[in-house]
Amino acid sequence: MRGYTDRWSVRSVPRRTCVGCRGTSDQADLLRVVVVGSVVVPDGQVRQAGRGAYVHPSPECLELAERRRAFPRALRVPGPLSTTAVTQAVLQAVSSKDREIEMSTR
Ligand SMILES: [Zn+2]
Questions:
Q1: Cα–ligand 1 centroid distance for 17 (angstroms)
Q2: 9-19: burial string, b at 16+ Cβ within 10 Å, e else
Q3: What does pTM read for this prediction?
């Protein structure tokens, strides 16, 4: 296993695994979610305490995560969990991104 630690000692942007597609991305490209009660909420400006999970801010990854019940597993709670708040936040982010693209192409 020589070289293994070397690779990880390179200080770069932290990589996290998306609970939806299981792909890794820079932490900045993923949405951190935490569980409050039985609700999964996006971890926004206010850093929520507790265990977090990472998911790509895309409806596809959210759907995948829901289908494989990845959130209760990643957040170590029995579930079932409501992911409505996260879905809404992602849809909002997606639609505002669309608007940005629209504006930049004009
Ligand atoms: Zn993903």
A1: 8
A2: eeeeeeebebb
A3: 0.76
| pLDDT tens readout for residues 26-81 | 988 999 999 988 999 998 765 666 778 999 999 999 999 999 999 999 999 997 89
Distance 2 CA to ligand 1 centre (A): 30
Question: Of 1, 36, 32, 35, nearest to 17 (Cα)?
Answer: 32
Domains, the chain, with CATH or none: 13-105 (3.30.1230.10)
C-alpha 22 to ligand 1 mean position (Å): 6
Distance between Cα 94 and ligand 1 center (Å): 14
> Beta strands of the chain (E only): which ranges?
15-17, 24-26, 31-36, 39-42, 52-55
